[in-house]
Amino acid sequence: MSSFGYSKQTLQGDLPEDPNNAPAQPQQQQAGFFVRTAIHIIGAIAGGLAMFLGLFSCFSLSGLCILSGLYLMLLGFGLIVLEAPICCQFWEITRKLGEWSNSMSALLKAGLYLLLPIASFFMCRGISQIFACLLVMGVGALYGIIFIGKKGDAVKIARQQHVTGTDGSQAVTMSEVKPQADVGRYP
């Protein structure tokens, strides 16, 4: 029984499902525990440094640099809340934000951490803004690497299948193909 009182019905009626005949579900490639923990630690450190550098850039006479510093402090705080919610345990919402952050895909986190610091860079181009933006973008690049994961092996597998062919016969590789003469081209 589900939580709404409806029973689960299958295509075969009331027969129990055979786990051997179940369709294969694609497995999501997850990063290892230590890799995720290292990225969370790096993200928390980058968030703290972004907050410090944002505070440092607030000591300016330019209004846009002060606004950029405030934005960097907010961005650093958000990075800490999303990557290390234990640092802000005294707020109830940080637990929910941490769970939501852990359920996000690596591609979404990479895009978020790569695009958000760009606004601060265009407001004020001081050394502290550049360094803080690069720290946050570095965390986004790490999430991008996690998203790519072992997908780079697909190229190697495709090359092997191309050389042997899908039916086991020997296929022609690109190095064996001779270039044709340019017919119809004007010099």
Automatic annotation (TrEMBL):
Keywords: Membrane, Transmembrane, Transmembrane helix
Protein name per Swiss-Prot or TrEMBL: Calcium channel flower
Primary localization class, coarse: membrane
Ranges of compositional bias, category Polar residues: 1-12
GO cellular component: endomembrane system; membrane
Organism: Holothuria leucospilota (Black long sea cucumber)
Family label: Belongs to the calcium channel flower family.
InterPro entries, per the entry: TVP18/Ca-channel_flower
Chain residue ranges for the region called Disordered: 1-25
Location(s), subcellular: Endomembrane system
Ranges annotated as spanning the membrane: 33-55, 61-82, 103-123, 129-149
Membrane topology classification: Multi-pass membrane protein
Annotated GO biological process: vesicle-mediated transport
